Amino acid sequence: MIKKDGHTHTQFSHHGSTEQLDMYIERAIDLGFTEYVVTEHAPLPQQFLEEFVGPDDARDNSAMAIDELTFYKSEVERVKEKFKDKINIKSGFEVDYLKVYETDIRSFLQRESNWIDEIVLSVHFLPNNEGNVAPIDYEPDTLSAYFSDECRNPQILFKRYYDAVIQSVNFDTGLKVPVRIGHITLIRKYQKLLHLPKFDESIKQQITELLAIIKKKNYQLDFNAAGFSKPYNGESYPTFDIAEQTKKIGIELVYGSDAHEVNALGLYYDEMKELIVDKKIGD
Length: 283
Hints:
The chain has helices at residues 21-30, 46-51, 56-61, 69-82, 102-111, 140-146, 148-152, 154-170, 191-194, 201-217, 226-229, 240-248, 269-272; strands spanning 4-8, 35-41, 88-96, 118-122, 125-127, 133-135, 179-181, 220-224, 253-256. The protein has 283 residues and is an alpha/beta fold. It has one domain (4-276): TIM Barrel (Alpha-Beta Barrel), CATH 3.20.20.140. Strands 1-2-3-4-7-8-9 form a 7-stranded parallel beta sheet. α5 links the parallel β3 and β4. α8 (154-170) packs parallel to α10. The longest helix is centred in the middle third of the chain and has 17 residues, at 154-170. The protein is globular and about 55 Å long. Belongs to the PHP hydrolase family. HisK subfamily.
């Protein structure tokens, strides 16, 4: 059977460990994973970086720099060859969806299309009421500062997030590779600290609409373990009830550790595996 981690990171993320990629792969092998997708944060569009309004650290360390791209790709190719008899390693990116920069994102993906095996398409940045695009998961103070109005009425914040996630699913990547929609309840990362309420019925309907579009596009869903380890969250992304809804309509859930350090690999896999569709090698 295939045991897959479809969402992993490296030292190039700049907001995790500096451990080398070999250490991640060795740990994955020890844990019995047979398939491993390296999905480092793709370089953000240059114009976006120039116009960025959030903290400097979030601008500089949310993704790899464009001048690291060649080294990143060579490292992935190196470990593919080194461990080819032990694990199937696939090359990819976690790609930030940014509505205003769709042309730049598509151009990047087209340039790298021959190298990409799979991608995770995620939303980490949203426009606020002033039209400034700011990070939603960098730290709680940043979310509160740039989305103060929305945090006072969290259902508005949720709606804005799911509007963006739906836009991301409708975005034409131009690729013919597996696409997974990343951590679709990330907006709840600070729910305990900010006392975020449960989704109201209109947001639940948005999620149902989102899942229908994912199904129509034949995309996968990132079943992401990272939220369990976040002190202000404590849940998978998405939550188990949404994951069950996803499975019922036939969307493939792919476990993602979202590991930014070696020790995070495989966390909560056993708790989540019942909702993951087992696949035989060769399927």
